[in-house]
Amino acid sequence: MLVKFAVKNYRGFKDRIEIDLSKHASYDFNEFVIRDEIIKNGIIYGPNGSGKSNFSLALFDIVYHLSHTWKKTDYYVNFINANRLSESVDFEYTFKFDEDVLFYSYSKNATGVLLQEKLVVNNKQIFERKPDYFFIAEEFPMEDGLKENFKHNVNNISVVNFLLTSFPLQKENPLIKLQTFANSMLWFRNLEVREFIGLELSGNALLDEYIIKNNLVKDFSDFLYQISNQKFDFIEPNPADHYLFCNYNGNKIQFDYIISTGTSSLRLLYFWIKRMNDSSFVFIDEFDAYYHFELSYTVCKYLFSLNCQVFLSSHNTYLMTNDLLRPDCNFIINDNKIKSLNNCTDKDLKFGHNIEKLYRGNTFQL
């Protein structure tokens, strides 16, 4: 699981910004949100332009050099803070895999080239590379020439990737677990353009075609009814069909022609939910942009019941309730800071508090 993440000099974050998911409170309600002493689920709120999307994108930077899954092609456009173009973008991750705690940090230049990299497992340094310096633990023997190449960053590859491909490692090795985690991360959003990072190898999936080929038409219909109370009379498709059709007053009409923007968004959500069982960490940016506020709540309940870590960003303060999460799982981001609600006030927050009302009343201050 992801324990902590920090980034500096990325896009609008000129200064270091950190989220620590190990710093949870001791509330005795909604205990499902804490697993292995780490916050499993959360929602990030903030004004327009506060950095919700950029923070989530920064969190997924690790996918760009440790995974072969799908990436945003324009990711490195405006990658570095405009006030510090000559400096580096610095990333720090802390993971917990069973009993192993892994700290991984690295820096990139404005075009995404790795400049330095460091890995520490259970307080033992495995390697460190920075300009004109390279260290590697004895368990990974290397020739002096290879060490010199890493020292001078000759081929720009990640040391993690080199170790994974050059040394036979056991399944339980923390490096294998790190690679698996990165390969299983998923970020997506559905605004004017649908975009995603991670999990899939291709970006060309057709949603209806996926549902048809996997015999999921009834399951999809049940999902729509369960989540949004909408009933659709789907016509049984042929295996080679590319689109879903509905029986609408005796007429055969393509599903796309009769659904709302919100239902279209639910179809995309359904597509990804079917893959989330294989996910390690999921972030859905502005997940409820097209949802009614009650539908947003229902979708949250569904997502937070999944096994993986799931975090969302939203403007919908109707979700800021102790019936759904807890104060330590609701985060505010603004002015290059991110904090949970319980860390934004001296007030002793309890289950009965209306935290949305407190938020609107400016109780929580970064």
Word description of this protein:
The strands form four sheets. Strands 2-1-6-7-8-9-10 form a seven-stranded antiparallel β-sheet. Strands 12-11-15-16-5-17-18 form a seven-stranded mixed β-sheet, sandwiched between helices. A two-stranded antiparallel sheet has the order 3-4. A hairpin with a 5-residue loop joins β7 (100-108) and β8. It has eleven helices and 18 strands. It has three domains: 18-51 and 279-366, no CATH class; 61-184, no CATH class; 200-277, no CATH class. It has helices spanning 52-59, 63-66, 144-151, 159-166, 174-183, 207-213, 217-228, 255-258, 261-276, 293-304, 355-360, and strands at 2-8, 17-20, 34-35, 38-39, 41-45, 89-97, 100-108, 114-121, 124-130, 133-136, 186-190, 194-197, 245-248, 251-254, 281-284, 309-313, 330-334, 337-340. 26% of the residues lie in helices and 25% in strands.
- Total individual domains: 3
Strand content: 25-35%
The helix fraction, in percent, is 25-40%
Counted beta strands = 18
SSE ordering: EEEEEHHEEEEEHHHEEHHEEHHEHEEEH
Lateral strand order in the biggest sheet: 2-1-6-7-8-9-10
What low-confidence regions span 5 or more consecutive residues with pLDDT below 50?
A: none
User: Distance N terminus to C terminus?
Assistant: 26 Å
- Quickly give the structural class: alpha+beta
